[in-house]
Amino acid sequence: MLISEDFVYYGGYGPQIPVDLADANGRPVCKQGIGRNVFDDPNLVVEFEHWIRSLGETGYQNAPYEWRQLRGSTRY
Description:
Elements: E1 8-9, H1 42-54, E2 59-60, H2 65-71
Parallel strand pairs: 1-2
């Protein structure tokens, strides 16, 4: 459950995240491979928030990737 009026959910088909969004150590926001990253760089948080808000979209945008694959639809 999500309780918020300030969010965007892209499901399985969101925007391409800029490759230059990285923390102070150069770790990109989008991790490739096994494992996880935890970010605590406040500048990165601000940059990411600025970028996502610049897209001008809020709320539910699309279904999870698996739903679209299983049901064969492009929008829910």
